[in-house]
Amino acid sequence: MNHIEVDQRTGQAACAWHAMSGGHGTLEGKTQTSTSAGRTMSLTMCEWKKVFYEKMEVAKPADSWELVMDPNLKPSELAPGWKQYLEQHASGRFHCSWCWHTWQSANVVILFHFYLDREQKTGSVRMRVFKQLCYECGTARLDDSSMLEENIESLVDNLISSLRQQCYEEDGGQYRIHVASRPDRGPHRREFCEACQEGIVHWKPSEKLLEEESGYSDGSRHKAQAGLGYNFLSLRWCILWGCLCLLLAYLQFSFRNPAFL
């Protein structure tokens, strides 16, 4: 049986177990909230595995890949043969496990390390979703993010594009820039971002798109300004000059011969 199918069935069984056990908690207060946050993260990881295995089965059916969450991943700290892809502009929703505050962010950073064993035709992907601090209650507890399945699909597409480029030396295709469906409320707060605290510089897609649009507008403006220059040797100008010369010759001849008028 394909390794992907085994992991996919295991992930689906885990998702089903979490869904059935979700309404039978006996703890109360903050402990119950913490359990709920952990259950949400587990369900989100199940969605990641489900989407990843389905898409890899189509992209590389001959190879077996696994997807594992690793909170200890560090940017650019790679074992020999491993590759890296950094998603800098994912959209996610955070839920504080202490004060129940929720917030949307378009600056979720996701780090992927992956390795392909060509002889065994097996690959491994380890991922880390960087967390954020709640700015309402000020607690030092870092909270996980949850994402919609449609958002996960676009992020997995980007991951597979990077896999194809770096592991298979193929053309991975166009990367998808995912813009959050809901805009951020104010600027990104770096002091509450785990990725920023670890020195990862990431940008908002809206800012990048504005830069690209601005560059395009500047280029168009320069072209338009260049187009304002007149070429007096063009056919249109030559015809105009010829008509003016004929008109001047006619007027000159008319003044010299009044009878002609």
From TrEMBL:
It is found in: Membrane. GO terms for biological process: detection of chemical stimulus involved in sensory perception of bitter taste; protein insertion into membrane; protein targeting to membrane. One of its GO terms (molecular function) is olfactory receptor binding. It comes from the Eukaryota. Keywords: Membrane, Metal-binding, Receptor, Transmembrane, Transmembrane helix, Zinc, Zinc-finger. InterPro entries: R-trans_p, ZAR1/RTP1-5-like_Znf-3CxxC. GO terms for cellular component: cell surface; membrane. SMART domains: zf-3CxxC. Signal peptide: none annotated. Its main location: membrane. It is a single-pass membrane protein. This is Receptor-transporting protein 2. It comes from Octodon degus. The lineage of its organism: Eukaryota, Metazoa, Chordata, Craniata, Vertebrata. The gene is Rtp2.
